[in-house]
Design brief:
The protein has 2 domains: about 120 residues, Aspartate Aminotransferase, domain 1, CATH 3.90.1150; about 240 residues, Type I PLP-dependent aspartate aminotransferase-like (Major domain) (Aspartate Aminotransferase, domain 2, 3-Layer(aba) Sandwich), CATH 3.40.640. By secondary structure, the protein is an alpha/beta fold. Helices cover about 35% and strands about 20% of the residues. The protein contains 14 helices and 14 strands. Helix 11 runs parallel beside helix 13. The chain starts with 15 loop residues before the first strand and ends in a 10-residue tail after the last helix.
Length: about 400
């Protein structure tokens, strides 16, 4: 009997032979512009040569180390990552994924406050492990029981959140921009209201920056973009440019107050992951890098409201393309793929997502614009029947 893969994913039916930068080479010879970037993972693009050299050199020098031993890649990472930190004293704990990072932030917050309730939000996604799944807004429960009590409030409901954050709440967790929900941005004053309510109630504010962090919004962190600072924040995905990593960052006073033995990991903080993360951090911090991210995001917003796209929301290179009324994201994605451009979908069937490499070809917005024009002019019936004449490019 043949071994079969667990049927967890509904895959896009293309045969990719290789990838370089933001280009996918298919078995039929086509080259596809990848504007999905592996869910915000490929920060520097696929197969970045200098990152590959860093990993190869570290493998030869010291491939794996128990966390009972210190090593130079850890010290190098701390020095490189410090340059990305917001003002203040911070401590970091390294694991392997965003879900783990969020689990550790929640564990620490509840342990320090001595409380057992967490406030979360409609549309959220924080991972598939027990605690992370409990504060995610998914179609089905991941576990039959929850490790703690969670209270869910509608996204951007300032009054509802203020009323719910009381002395029983140990943590408030949210994505500063909800990616999977359709790149939903916070309303003006929403994050500041959460910060003030947490301070009033003695709760800890956690930002899940698994997708919004590491330069994706054109700042190192969403907290810097929005001007609101959490007590803890997490990141993963693009932090090591494609090598698995999870980071839980807390104010140093919080880290010092965390009970001994609460945190632990086998693979987290290994030399390979930290060597990769240090390299990515330095690239992000290099002069001009974030400016290019902001410029690329602005160009996508300027040039891609055309054809099936009614508007663009989001910041930097985490963007949601809102479709004309009646269009379905899956159909438009497939039509764009036929034009050799790969974009993502999300939980909102009327929104496409862009989360490309931050080292993006300068002509990427123009290539997407041409593909949008092409699918409008020679549209599949599922797209053409919905587009009003005014929706097409003049």
């Amino acid at each position: 009997m043949a071994l079969r893969e667990w049927p967890a994913y509904k895959r896009i039916p293309i045969d990719v032979l290789s990838a370089s930068g933001s280009e996918l080479l298919l078995s039929d010879g086509r080259r596809v512009l990848d504007l999905y970037g592996g869910h915000c993972v490929n920060t520097l693009g696929a197969g970045d040569p200098s990152l590959g050299e860093v990993l190869a050199q570290q493998w030869k020098q010291w491939s794996f180390a128990t966390n009972l031993l210190d090593h130079a890649p850890r010290r190098d990472f701390l020095a490189a990552f410090e340059a990305l930190m917001p003002a203040g004293e911070w401590s970091v704990f390294v694991t392997n994924s965003g879900a783990e990072a969020n689990e550790n932030a929640l564990k620490a917050a509840l342990a320090i406050t001595g409380r057992s309730k967490v406030l979360c939000f409609g549309g959220a996604f924080h991972g598939r492990t027990a605690g992370a799944a409990r504060v995610s807004d998914t179609k089905r429960a991941a576990y039959p029981a929850s490790p703690f009590e969670a209270v869910r409030v509608a996204w951007n409901d300032i009054a509802g959140a203020q009323a719910a954050i009381d002395a029983s709440v140990g943590a408030v967790i949210l994505e500063p921009i909800q990616s999977l929900a359709g790149v939903q941005e916070p309303a003006p004053g929403f994050l500041a209201a959460l910060r003030a309510s947490c301070e009033r109630a003695g709760a800890l504010l956690i930002f899940d920056e698994v997708q919004t962090g590491n330069g994706r919004l054109g700042t190192f962190w969403a907290s810097q973009h929005f001007g609101v600072m959490p007590d803890l924040f997490t990141t993963a995905k693009g932090a090591a440019g494609g090598y698995p990593i999870g980071l839980t960052v807390a104010r140093s006073a919080i880290a010092a107050a965390t009970p001994e033995g609460l945190m632990g990991t086998t693979f987290g903080g290994g030399p390979l992951a930290l060597a990769a993360a240090a390299h990515v951090a330095r690239r992000i911090a290099a002069p001009g890098f974030l400016e290019r991210v902001r410029a690329a995001g602005a160009e996508f917003k300027r040039s891609c409201v055309r054809g099936p796209i009614a508007s663009v929301r989001g910041e930097g290179l985490l963007l949601g393309l809102v479709l004309q009324t009646g269009l379905k994201a899956a159909a438009v994605r497939d039509a764009l793929l036929a034009q050799n451009v790969l974009v993502g979908t999300c939980d909102d069937p009327a929104v496409l997502r862009l989360s490309p490499a931050l080292e993006l070809p300068a002509d990427a917005p123009a290539r997407l614009a041409r593909a949008l024009d092409a699918i409008t002019e020679a549209a599949a019936p599922s797209i053409r029947s919905t587009l009003a004449p005014s929706a097409a490019r003049p």
